[in-house]
Amino acid sequence: MTRADPLLEAPWAIAPEAVGSPAAAALWRTYYTEVSDRYYLLHEGRRTAHEELERGIAAETGEGLRPPTGTLLVARYGGEPAGTAGVRLLGDMKGISTAELTRVFVREDMRGRGGAALLLAAAEDAARELGAEQVILDTRLDLVEARALYARHGYEESEPLTERQYAECWYVKKLGSAAS
């Protein structure tokens, strides 16, 4: 699946990729480093220690983002890996087939070029292909840019939907057909 905007200087291409590919692994490291450092700077006034960083990266293998019940999308800008979004099918939640959105990330130097919205749309398409009728996600309060992105694209705040150490707010979006 390729999504390009003729108004952008270079096209975005978004496609499924193996969780362990070099591009996916490098993007995961960049994502995890950024959100971890942001957390520790906010709460403890320091960056993530190397050992903490390595433990955190190793603990989240992305196993749930493998087919047939998940997918990891990698966005490339002008051919260069620039972002990710993961989707994994959770099954029924209150009678609705549900997928979870995770690892939504665009590299800092690639932000402001429309990639996040394209990644989100591609992730929703992937969730539909997995059979999901809705998408859920959790995030932290300090990730205000991500929260604004979700709100702009029809995600509604919800009661807690997952139990994770750093989850502070939850979102849900009902998925229409691919044409909507």
Can you walk through the features of this model?
With 180 residues, the protein is an alpha+beta fold. It has a single domain, classed as Aminopeptidase. Helix content is 32%, strand content 29%. It has helices spanning 22-44, 50-59, 115-129, 144-152; strands spanning 12-16, 70-77, 80-93, 96-106, 134-139, 156-158, 169-174. Strands 1-2-3-4-5-7-6 form a 7-stranded mixed β-sheet, with helices on both faces. Strand 3 (80-93) and strand 4 (96-106) form a beta hairpin.
Topology:
Layout: E1 12-16, H1 22-44, H2 50-59, E2 70-77, E3 80-93, E4 96-106, H3 115-129, E5 134-139, H4 144-152, E6 156-158, E7 169-174
Parallel strand pairs: 4-5
Antiparallel strand pairs: 1-2, 2-3, 3-4, 5-7, 6-7
Please tag this protein with its features:
alpha+beta; globular; 4 helices; Aminopeptidase; seven-stranded mixed β-sheet; 180 residues
- Please write the string of helix (H) and strand (E) elements: EHHEEEHEHEE
The first-level CATH class is given as Alpha Beta
Say what the CATH topology is. Answer: Aminopeptidase
**Overall number of strands:** 7
Going by CATH, the homologous superfamily would be Gcn5-related N-acetyltransferase (GNAT)
- Overall 3D form: globular
How far apart lie the N and C ends?
17 Å
Number of domains: 1
EC number: 2.3.1.-
Keywords: Acyltransferase, Transferase
Protein name: GNAT family N-acetyltransferase
InterPro entries: Acyl_CoA_acyltransferase (IPR016181), Bact_Acetyltransf (IPR050832), GNAT_dom (IPR000182)
